[in-house]
């Protein structure tokens, strides 16, 4: 009997026409799969691959025996339809703004010491312990604080540190948020914080430019 195969653990993907952008979370890298390998990958996902397809995908380390659980079961948030940043936010309190600055700086320090996979492994536990629904007033406070914090700490090329910081701050307020990663071609990547269909960290038109590939 042929052993069952599955997507390699830690590998996340999205399709662009006949190509796939993949995020290898343990290796902390993105890469592109195209041509014959992309076609073999598509057939594998559609459960119509042949032995040659599977051999190529095994060689490329895109699939593995399924005794190691794959990543296909990770739920993605719904498509974003609104953003708090696109509406007037309440004036951020000074203490909230200081908290936002500290959360972003702590996230930046953590990213220099740990891989994102290690940081993300703690997210699920925090969400379960602190989730109390969408927490709209707390969401507004946190979003406003991070917007005001942009005056004092750079937001340029800091979407990951800001996203981790905002997600942690929301968890502390009892809000279950998701940190969503998106990609586009020509290749660019971005991440944002989202609760339900609402984005808390970016304008909606920015987020909709990207196709979600992973959420933590």
Major sheet strand order = 6-9-8-7-10
- What string, H for helix and E for strand, traces the elements in order? EEEEHHEEHHHHHEEEHE
Sheet with most strands? 5 strands, mixed
Rg over C-alpha atoms, rounded to the nearest angstrom: 19 Å
Instruction: Give the DSSP E fraction (strand runs of 2 or more residues).
Output: 15-25%
Question: Would you write up a description of this structure?
Answer:
- The chain has helices at residues 35-45, 51-59, 94-113, 116-120, 123-130, 136-149, 159-172, 204-207; strands at 5-7, 11-16, 19-24, 29-33, 63-65, 82-83, 178-184, 188-195, 198-199, 211-215.
- The chain is an alpha+beta fold.
- It has 2 domains: 5-65, no CATH class; 82-215, no CATH class.
- β7 and β8 (188-195) form a beta hairpin.
- 39% of the residues lie in helices and 22% in strands.
- The strands form 3 sheets. It has a 5-stranded mixed β-sheet, covered by helices on one side.
